[in-house]
Design brief:
The complex is a heterodimer. Chain A is mainly α. Chain A contains eleven helices and four strands; from the N terminus they run ααααββββααααααα. In chain A, the strands form two sheets. A two-stranded antiparallel sheet of chain A has the order 1-4. In chain A, strands 2-3 form a two-stranded antiparallel ribbon. The chains are: A mainly alpha, B alpha/beta.
């Protein structure tokens, strides 16, 4: 493949990866930002999203779009409720102590993963995309006959992958509006800045924590519902997103939402481009190396505030 | 209520990193947790115990499930016909998680805890390679159903045998002439990046060169990969044939993305059915496979000239005329591979009967009896077709099928003979001491 079309294909692949990654990492970042909880079970909420999407679409049947739309609405809410329940039942009981929450979320990780294995089974199952047209993309060159447009072999994207990119942008914009323009956002930001003072002003911090934990898991589940027609639902699929989300959150700055978006774009695009030109393994190596470099030279992350 | 919430300490970067570290550790162990499967209780009639190393979880789970169903059907048939040497057969199932380390542990459990007479069943080559040395140490006969060339290459030991399924080297040698004569000479290979895929890479490259063709690119993909489009730009423009073989949970995604990558003008496709085992060929997104070719160990769809023994086998394992479960059309079997379990169990039975096997003290007699076998004609015991077993290399040889996708059906277009897949012996296990 020529360099130009090759780069364009790599960028498109990177954009799809970024879109999913930004939703997953955003969930992790919000939970950390507001609650100061490092949620190791985050990848499993992602996996639950994909598995529930399969359950909803196969139960409903009919045209794939009906099931997909239903999954898009119900699954993040369902997973959010499960997460909020886990927060009430477990995290609250350990008083959100940083060390104990890490151990507790590891426990949640295993419970979710093994329960899925025992019920849903070890198979990978597909969810049909609501629409999936292959769009060939043109490329241009200045040859002997001047400016020419041609259609290189393999340079294409599907309409569904474009939809994933657009959907991620819409969700992010909505999230940003909610956080900065609404009372809910104000309450969340107040809790983030100083939970004791917020509580003194009558903010039900405990409820806010549950909502935020649910929201974080819901965002991961939403990312999974979007990705499951491209990949397949499998009980071990939570591992990679968790690791990448952690990488993104550390590079972007713990708890910093703009930093998370920038880092997700950076990691997603570089993952796409390096994977296509070199190898996916090298992409992972570079991402982890980047984490090490950020920690050495800018420990608070790109946009994070240094911990006093 | 809210005033119960108290922030006891500020989390800092250190604890966040601790979280990252522990999560990585958790991920590393996540695949290893065994889904513990029950003990078999000893019975008064002293059954012959066959340890079944099953890929119940991990990347081989789809194969594991169908290997299990085939094993159950074969054992039921053996027991209905009076068992082995008048004793009933009992299968002890252990999950190996499709993991080599766990595989070796499972063999230890079979030998020391369950007191199994023999072990059997493994498919994934890295699990076989990881487990076989342990079988040799435990002096436990280990019958694998793996296709890998590791048995016949001489890399394993006298206790490891593959009498029920042919190996990759034999398969690709018999496929190469068809590919070169009918599809094209410039081949790009896409294969999983572990022992099984490397067998494909090495032996097919040599075989196609012998036919005057060449492999223009070799693309290795980790079997745990979930997204594939990023690998396809490495396919050179001059490619005439794509040779693909993929395993793991994401095979459907692999084939779909291959179709999306090429769109309407694809090169010729020659795949090993592994790329679509346990997947319905009529799945949405796979329409582009129409007119492409697949190797099949045993034809998934009923062919016009179906033999009676094939019909009986298909009914016994509960598979319909399209290779899916009779109970659930969406549950497609691993039909091109799972016959190996059926045939291997029948070979164990024949071996135990000719060795007059009484207990673990007769294990070496059993191996010698199997090594002495040669012709295995097609029958209800060997429904895939005629086979010739080579006792020296512990490897069986048989027919191979090439099917063309025609109106959503796999129709056999070419059958390679046993001789087409023959190669020179690379080892003589019978000279090794027990």
């Amino acid at each position: 493949m020529d360099f130009g079309p090759h780069l364009m294909l790599a960028s498109l692949e990177g954009a799809v990866i970024s879109a999913i990654l930004v939703l997953t990492a955003m969930g992790l970042s919000i939970v950390f930002g507001v609650m100061r909880v490092v949620n190791v079970a985050h990848g499993e909420f992602f996996m639950l999203g994909a598995v529930f999407a399969w359950v909803v679409t196969t139960t409903l049947g009919g045209h794939p779009a009906i099931g997909f739309l239903a999954a898009l609405i119900t699954v993040p809410i369902l997973v959010g409720c499960i997460a909020a329940g886990a927060d009430r039942l477990i995290l609250k009981r350990v008083n959100y102590d940083p060390d104990r929450t890490i151990v507790a979320t590891i426990g949640i990780l295993y419970i979710i993963q093994q329960t899925t294995l025992m019920t849903y089974g070890p198979e990978a199952r597909p969810v049909e995309a609501p629409f999936n047209t292959r769009l060939s993309l043109p490329w241009f060159e200045f040859g002997e006959n001047g400016f020419e447009i041609f259609w290189p072999w393999g340079l294409s994207i599907t309409s569904y992958k474009l939809f994933v990119i657009v959907a991620a942008i819409v969700v992010l914009t909505t999230l940003w509006l909610v956080l900065t323009r609404t009372k809910i956002g104000l309450i969340m930001r107040a809790t983030q800045q100083d939970s004791d003072t917020a509580q003194a002003f009558g903010i039900p911090v405990g409820k806010v924590y549950s909502w935020v934990f649910g929201l974080g898991a819901g965002l991961a589940a939403l990312g999974a519902v979007l990705v499951v027609p491209i990949q397949q639902a499998h009980y071990l699929m939570g591992g990679d997103p968790l690791l990448l989300a952690f990488i993104v959150v550390i590079i972007g700055g713990l708890g910093s939402l703009p930093g998370t978006v920038i880092a997700a774009l950076l990691i997603g695009m570089s993952d796409g481009i390096i994977s296509v030109f070199f190898s996916p393994t090298l992409a992972k190596i570079i991402a982890t190396f980047l984490v090490a470099m950020v920690l050495v030279f800018r420990p608070q992350g790109l946009l994070g505030k240094s911990v006093a | 209520m809210p005033n119960e919430i108290k922030k006891t300490s500020k989390i800092n970067r250190r604890s966040a990193l601790l979280g990252l570290g522990t999560s990585a550790g958790v991920l590393a162990t996540a695949g290893i947790l065994p889904g513990s499967l029950g003990f078999a209780q000893a019975q008064s009639s002293a059954p012959i115990k066959i340890g079944f190393q099953k890929h119940a979880t991990g990347i081989g789970a789809a194969y594991g499930r169908w290997y299990g169903a085939t094993t159950d059907a074969a054992v039921k048939r053996i027991n209905d016909n009076g068992g082995i040497n008048g004793r009933p057969v009992e299968v002890v199932v252990e999950d190996d998680g499709t993991d080599p380390g766990r595989g070796a542990e499972v063999l230890e459990k079979f030998a020391n805890q369950h007191n199994c007479d023999v072990a059997f069943g493994t498919l994934f080559s890295h699990v076989v390679i990881g487990s076989a040395p342990r079988a040799g140490e435990l002096k436990l006969p280990y019958f694998v159903v793996s296709e890998g060339h590791h048995v016949a290459s001489g890399g394993l030991n006298r206790y490891t045998l593959q009498p029920g399924i042919t190996d990759v080297k034999s398969q690709v040698i018999s496929m190469a002439p068809f590919v070169a004569d009918n599809l094209g000479k410039k081949v790009t290979m896409i294969f999983p990046d572990f022992a099984f895929g490397h067998d494909h890479r090495d032996f097919f490259s040599a075989a196609i060169e012998a036919q005057g063709g060449e492999v223009v690119a070799k693309i290795a993909i980790p079997p745990t990969e979930t997204t594939f489009t990023r690998y396809f730009p490495s396919i050179p423009r001059e490619t005439e044939v794509i040779y693909h073989v993929m395993v793991g949970p994401a095979v459907l995604t692999f084939v779909k993305e291959l179709g999306e990558f090429f769109g309407p003008n694809r090169p010729e496709l020659f795949g090993f059915i592994d790329s679509l085992e346990a997947v319905d060929i009529r799945s949405s997104g796979l329409e582009f496979l129409e007119g492409s070719y697949f190797w099949e160990g045993m034809p998934r769809h009923v062919q016009a000239d179906q033999a009676d023994y094939e019909k009986a086998y298909r009914a016994a394992v509960g598979v319909n005329e399209r290779g899916a479960s009779v109970d659930d059309e969406a549950d497609v079997s691993t039909y091109a591979h799972m016959f190996g379990c059926w045939e291997t169990l029948n070979i164990i039975k024949a071996g135990m009967e000719s060795a007059d096997y009484q207990g673990p003290q007769d294990r070496t007699k059993l191996i010698e009896a199997v090594e002495a076998m040669t012709d295995m004609p097609a029958s209800e015991d060997h429904p895939q077709g005629d086979k010739v077993f080579n006792g020296k290399t512990h490897q069986t040889f048989g027919k191979q099928y090439i099917s063309k996708v025609t109106d959503g059906r796999l129709v056999v277009e070419h059958t390679a003979s046993i001789e087409d897949g023959r190669y020179e012996d690379e080892v003589d296990y019978t000279t090794q001491s027990f």
